Amino acid sequence: MCFLSPTPRSVLQEVFGYDSFRGPQQAIVEHVTAGGDALVLMPTGGGKSLCYQIPAIVRQQQGHGCTIVVSPLIALMHDQVGALHEAGVEAAFLNSSLGYEQAQEVEWRLQSGQITLLYVAPERLVTPRFLGLLDALYAQGQLALFAIDEAHCVSQWGHDFRPEYRQLALLHERYAGVPRLALTATADDLTRADMVQGLHLQNAQQFISSFDRPNIRYRIVEKKDAFAQLLRFIQHEHAGDAGVVYAQSRRRVEELAEKLQREGIHALPYHAGLPPDVRAGNQHRFLREEGVVMVATIAFGMGIDKPDVRFVAHVDMPKNIESYYQETGRAGRDGLPAQAWMAYGLSDVVNQRRMIDEGEAEEAFKTVLRGKLDALLTLAEATDCRRQRLLAYFGEASGPCGNCDNCLQPPAVWDGTDAARKLLSTIYRVHQKSALTFGAGHIMDVLRGKDSDKVRQYGHDGLSTFGVGAQYSEAQLRAVMRQLLATGALGLHKVTSDNSGHVFDTLVLTDASRAVLQGQMQVLLRESVAAARTRRPKGTPANVAAQDLGPDAQARFINLKAWRSEVAKAHDLPAYVIFHDATLAAIAEQNPQSLQALQGISGIGAKKLEAYGAEVLAVLARSQ
Ligand code: ADP
Ligand code: ZN
Hints:
Layout: H1 8-14, H2 25-33, E1 38-41, H3 48-61, E2 66-70, H4 74-86, E3 91-94, H5 100-111, E4 117-120, H6 122-125, H7 128-139, E5 143-148, H8 163-166, H9 169-174, E6 180-184, H10 189-198, E7 205-208, E8 216-222, H11 226-237, E9 242-246, H12 250-262, E10 267-270, H13 276-288, E11 293-296, E12 309-314, H14 321-328, E13 338-344, H15 346-358, H16 363-381, H17 386-393, H18 405-408, E14 413-415, H19 417-433, H20 440-448, H21 453-457, H22 474-487, E15 490-496, E16 503-509, H23 513-517, E17 524-526, H24 551-571, H25 575-578, H26 581-590, H27 595-599, H28 606-622
Parallel strand pairs: 1-6, 1-7, 2-4, 2-5, 3-4, 5-6, 8-13, 9-11, 9-12, 10-11, 12-13
Antiparallel strand pairs: 14-17, 15-16
Helix pairs in contact: 2-3, 15-16, 19-20, 24-26
The chain binds adenosine-5'-diphosphate and zinc ion (ZN).
């Protein structure tokens, strides 16, 4: 590709086919193109790639040579480079998937100045051989830029920590004067400080975007039968859509994937315990095929840039808001409506608490973990705007969003203070009377005045709180218990049964119980409502990008998709790399009759127009 005097804007329009920069992209691109260092914090889907791809193209045209992109995601490099080829950009990758000769050819192209962007894994970058190549380029002034993607991998705090990222500090010393750009979607202060320190970015300009993802609808439902709820959610609201379902354990992942398959859903499992080829195969299918639901542990997701993931569902609660936000952020990168759905129940509180208690961490660290869990529990129990709370957690002020469950359908709230006090005093009395411990079910029986064998056996029908909570349903009392546990006003204590040796959790009062018992703390709870069913009206397409199209445009959209899928197969690339759904929908709607008319559509750059323009027009002509 040759420009007389390429500017960031002309590259954006000509090469990528987009009208305008998004958010802070322009400022970042200009700063880096001019040779400045930068640290970019942008949410998933914010458009980080263009922040280094455009400077790479412009700087190369200015005679500065090649941009090196450091990425930990070997499995995804092929598609990233493929997407650049589709846009007419000279790109390549070097990683362990290449044979010796292929790698040599890439090295040769690098040395002879034919590559605009080279993707490498950090462990490859720091090998003497590769550093030797870089030294030679540097000596000739042919190193344009280092882009360090997923830069949070340098931080030991996150679960993505990669020790090799620590060695990237050498870039600063060895290649002084070559601009460096570090990018991440991880927002917290601790990680940011680690990146600045670990990558020597003290003098870099920081670009921090809003972390809001307005197109994602957040919903947290009360867990009853997680699988049935998940199935209903997918069948009623996301039939045929691509999505990710996160579950806690490998066993649960496999079980859920299998059950979904049995219900006719195109579901695949992904977790670190699967053989590498199965894992890679499933990821490949998720990226290539339409409408795959990936059921996964947290091992899945980093760097997956599939833009049309329509939902992320959690059937188990993650361990903190950072994880929740990162995982849900994988939905809707294309900016079209997407949902983050989570089923949450008493068992999640118990399990997550137990995992921390039984973990190997030091006590001080456990206190941090508990604090982080509590913040997520508060979000799950919230009766006001979820997004406002999420953003507040990341230090961003905002108003009610209008696109979360609580905004769309404000929950009826009931005052559970009385129920909470009665519950706590029942726990106190039951345990005062005998040294034995009792589970939640028995406590509720006493409170509701149930005449059970166990109640009679222990004489609990004689307690002053027996039956004082008869007006509450079991569901209501469970909700009270969950919230008391979530806020720490009730604790769990592990006991071993004398008879069976079975370990179980029993409820105990905590210091914070007193405030509730003394009426100093109000307990507000959401009314448990039957899940509102939102079904797609009959006859509307499953594809959100195309849902506003008329019948003729619909037909064109379907034909365009069929054509795209052929091209993608032939190029061994995911369909979205050829054209996004949104681009196909715009073509279908505008029905352009000439190359010139086609050119104005967002997502069609010069190379794609040249490569596919005539074919697209032919598909449209056939669809008349
Ligand atoms: P991130 O890496 O921050 O998650 P990407 O770089 O993958 O985000 O971009 C997300 C999506 O948004 C991509 O599909 C990309 O093509 C699109 N995109 C990025 N910048 C723009 C822009 N200025 N105009 C239109 N689409 C854009
Ligand atoms: Zn809201």
